[in-house]
Every structure is written in C-alpha cells, then in structure tokens.
Amino acid sequence: MTVTEAPAGDAPAPEPYFTREAGRWTHQWKELYEEVITTGLCTGCSACVISCPHDVIGYEHQEGGYKPFHLEDELGASDCIHGQKGCTSCTRACPRFRDWEPTADEHLFGRDRETEEIHGIAEQVLLVRASDDHVHQTGQDGGLVSAILIWLLDEGYIDGALVSGLEGDGSTWKAKPMVATTKDEVLATAGSRYTYSANWLAYDEAREKGLENLALVGMGCQTSASPVMWARKIGKVGKPIKFNIGLLCSKTFDDRIFDELFDAKYGIKRETIKKMNIKGVFQIWTHDDEYHEVPLKECHAWTREGCMQCPDFAAEHADISTGGIGKFNDHTLTVVRTELGREVITRMIKAGVIEVKPAEEDPAALALMDRLSRVSRNRWPDTAIGFPKRMPPPPPKKKKAAAPAADAGPKPAPSDQPEGGEPTKADADLKP
Ligand SMILES: Cc1cc2nc3c(=O)[nH]c(=O)nc-3n(C[C@H](O)[C@H](O)[C@H](O)COP(=O)(O)OP(=O)(O)OC[C@H]3O[C@@H](n4cnc5c(N)ncnc54)[C@H](O)[C@@H]3O)c2cc1C
Ligand code: SF4
Ligand code: SF4
Fold it and tell me: How high is the pLDDT of residue 127?
C-alpha cells in the first residue's frame, strides 16, 4: 500500500512519500547495501552483522568506519549469494531499512504515533536517581541505567546485559561492546563515552556464555533494532533481548577526535582523561584534577558519518529512554515508554532502589528534549521514506534572554554536570 501525503506548510518539492511494506518479505543484502549502507542512512548499529545466519557480514571497527561490509567475494561487495537463495535476515534486522519507524511503533505500542509525539510514544517522563550512593556516583547522571541493570539481574528478568566498556585499562578511551552479568561488571561499565560502541556486537559472546535473557543498552539507533526484528519475524536472534534501555543522543564522534582535536589543539592526551560530559560544551576532567572545555562547534568536524542523517534523539523504541538534560544534575531524565518499562520502574520505586520526581519540576528539560528531537528529525533526508519527518509546526520563536557566560559559575565537579541543561545558544551547536 502506498499513501502519499502533501508536505506540511508551503514546503517545496520533493514531496515526502510514505510507503508501508506489504506481502512476503524478500529483501536481502543487495537492497540493504543500495538503500541503507551506501546512502548514509546506516548508523553502524551492527544488528545486521549479528543477525546473519551465514556469518558473511563483517564490521569495520576502525576510525572513520563503524559500518558493515560483505565478507564474501563471490558477488562483490553489493550482493550476497545467500540472499540470492532467499536469506533475508539482514534486512529484517535493520532499523533504518524501509518503513522501520512505523513498524517499531506498531509492534511496541500497537498504534502509529501522532504527529505531535515528537520525542516518540511515551507513558510518562520522570526524573530519577539511584538510591544507592555508590551506584548514583558511578553513573553518568542519576545512575538509573546501572540501577535498572542491577535490579533486573537480581530479580531474574535478565541474566546478562549488552553494554559498553573501555578496552584494556581504559587509557585509550576506545569504547568496546561488552557483556555484564554482575553488579561489579555493570558498575565497571557505567558512565558515558561519546565515541561509538555497537553494543549488539557483544551478543555472540553473551550467547556463547549461555545467557538467554538479555538487556540491551544503547542509543536509539541500536534500541530500535529489537522491535524491528520482532515485528519482521527474524526468529531466534531477537528472542533473548528482554529489555531495551535507550540513551538520548544527538551524535557520536569519531575516535580521531582524541588525537586530532583534544591533543593537537588543547594538549589533552587520551590517557590523562578521567571523565567526559557534554553540556553545551564538551567537558573534560583529567586525572590531575584539571577541568577543560572544548566548544562543540569545534567538535562537529569529527561527527561520525552514521549520525549525520539520524532522526532519533530520544531513543524512541526503548522500554525506557534516559538522558542527562535538565537542571537536576544528579538525576536521569527518564522516558517510560512501554508497559514493561512501567512495570520495572514501579517495582523499583516500591523496592526503594530509585528515587523519583515528576518531570514537571523541570519544564525546560521537556521543552529541550522536544527541541533536540526536532533537530534530529530534520536531518532525515527527503529522498528516504518520510515517516521520521512527520512533525508538528515549530513553536513560535521567543525573544532571546541573555545567556550566562560559559565560565560564569564555579568549576563543575565531574559527577554533577549532565548533557543539555537549560536551553541556551550552545544547544543549537548540537546540530551537525
Ligand atoms: C554517545 C552518547 C551520547 C549521549 N547524548 C546525550 C544527549 O545529547 N543528551 C542527553 O540528555 N543524554 C545523552 N546521553 C545519555 C547520558 O549520557 C546518560 O547515558 C544517560 O543520562 C544515563 O545516565 P545514567 O547515569 O542513568 O547511566 P549510567 O548508570 O552511567 O549507565 C550508562 C550506560 O550507558 C552505556 N554506555 C556508555 N557509553 C556508551 C556508548 N558510547 N555507546 C553505548 N552505550 C554506552 C554504559 O555501558 C552504561 O550501561 C548520551 C549517551 C551516550 C553514550
Ligand atoms: S543501520 Fe545497522 S542494521 Fe542497518 S545496515 Fe547499518 S549496521 Fe546494518
Ligand atoms: S545520533 Fe546517536 S542515535 Fe543517532 S546514529 Fe548517531 S549514535 Fe546513533
């Protein structure tokens, strides 16, 4: 079925088109390569890699890469002999192929989203922190993601989680997909890295360890894969994922940013870095207790290619999505999306492992989430199926209030500064 709707307002051609898939699913690597991998839609999430039953899709981990590629020479890079024979697993897994957005919405929520639901379908937005001080302080913001993983392990919902750690002793700051099965492993991998970690790639290790019930932690590009796989009936690959935790995200940076910007211009060597955060500026704390700020404008040149056209800021297909925007620096902004997400949060509140405030205590954070969601949605190209471009008209522009100087306040401590914060001019810099 093809439905063509008129573009909003007086927007010129090309008209967006809205095509839903119907009939038998026959799409294979050839179409994935032509429509996603070579058009810039591919985010490098790696869902196609772990889904391939013939193990013929590799993944480019190196700087400038973060993309899948075909390992067999027989038909060249753009075609697959197994696809020719009827294998369709990679396109069933891909959360950027064809009508991925309404497919995931329908599967998770049983309905299409309304145009006004600019940050995705949500039951509730809350401000949450882990009650345990150690968990709270180890986490990037409120430590909620770590608290959830620990609670899900304790309660038997999961026996492992696909997360991101750092390779080796951490001094290279190279993010690495990892499996966490204990509280210690969860806490060892807490905090945010702003380079890409394709956490799905830890899936095979989890299965080899005999783990059957997994949580996935990842940005929207990764957490949309699970409902897409389930809806497109990929089979056993999708079954172990029982809980999806999303991370709000505007972009990730190529690993080259460490040498080519932080070191070359600011003299900050990767091995000296203790913690990073983004709040209007790129904040870096070093082991000698120094604090550095790098303007986001200078970082844009190192934006990963896979993020340039990504329309999903708010991790819209997770059970629970989490972010650092808002005035409560020690809380995680928490979007509860699914029934399962609500069940988990409700039980965690009852068990006393998290403390919660209503998000209405920080209306600016909610407005900023919508604003950043709009910025991301505007990146989706006109040449692709138009669902992610559906948005209400932008709110009327307000007169600008004078923004405080970036260095007006005291030096922030590493544990108390999240991304976002009050909307400022600097937030506009999140745009690539
Ligand atoms: C690349 C990136 C960009 C982000 N951008 C924004 C933003 O623009 N605005 C915003 O409000 N929030 C953003 N966040 C989310 C924010 O930084 C926190 O992750 C979120 O608020 C949860 O905090 P917490 O204390 O509850 O999580 P924690 O308890 O600290 O747990 C964080 C979890 O994230 C995983 N993780 C860390 N780095 C990565 C990575 N690179 N890839 C995949 N998983 C990872 C860890 O393994 C851990 O399980 C971003 C996060 C990341 C990783
Ligand atoms: S977006 Fe993910 S699933 Fe799709 S082609 Fe890229 S790596 Fe594969
Ligand atoms: S902007 Fe974030 S969610 Fe989107 S592709 Fe990049 S890393 Fe993934």
Answer: 98
For atom 2 of ligand 2, the residue with the nearest CA is 45
Q: For residues 277-299, give the mean pLDDT.
A: 95
Backbone angles phi, psi at 390, to 5 degrees: -70, 125
- Choosing from 36, 41, 43, 308 the residue with most ligand 3 atoms within 8 A of its CB, the one to mutate for a pocket test is 43
Both 70 and 194 in one domain: the answer is no
How much is the average pLDDT of 165-182? 96
Pocket of ligand 3 (CB under 6 A): 43, 219-221, 249-252, 306-307, 310, 312
In this structure, are 23 and 129 located in the same domain? no
Residue 422: pLDDT band (50, 70, 90) is: very low
Residue 313 near residue 250 (C-beta atoms within 8 A): yes
Residues 130 and 73 in one domain: no
Q: pLDDT at residue 152 above 60?
A: yes
pTM (global) more than 0.85: yes
- Within a domain: residue 2? no
List beta partners, residue 273: 286
Residue 425 has pLDDT above 60, yes or no: no
Beta-strand pair 332-336/320-323: antiparallel
Ligand 1 mean position, distance from CA 191 (Å): 6
Full residue range of the structural domain in which residue 354 is found: 124-389+413-428
- Give the pair of three-digit tokens for residue 201: 């790639």
37 CB within 6 A, ligand 2: yes
- The distance of Cα 415 from the centroid of its chain, to the nearest Å, equals 21
Residues 102 and 139 in one domain: no
Provide the CATH number for the domain around residue 47.
3.30.70.20
Is the same domain home to 183 and 153? yes
Q: How many CB atoms lie within 10 A of CB 87?
A: 18
47 lines ligand 2 (CB under 6 A): yes
Residue 404 has pLDDT above 70, yes or no: no
Q: For residue 290, give the amino acid letter.
A: E
Question: How buried is residue 18: exposed, middle or buried, by Cβ count under 10 Å (0-12/13-18/19+)?
Answer: middle
Query: Structurally, how many domains does the chain consist of?
Result: 2
Dihedral, CA of residue 353, residue 358, residue 364 and residue 367, to nearest 10: 100
Q: What is the pLDDT of residue 423?
A: 36
Q: Mean per-residue pLDDT for 340-364?
A: 97
DSSP bridge partners of 420:
none
Q: Are residues 100 and 135 in the same domain?
A: no
Given 109, 136, 158, the domain boundary residue is 109
Report pLDDT for 1. 31
- The tokens describing 234, both together, are 């990929």
Statement to judge: residues 244 and 141 lie in one domain: yes
45 and 131 assigned to the same domain: no
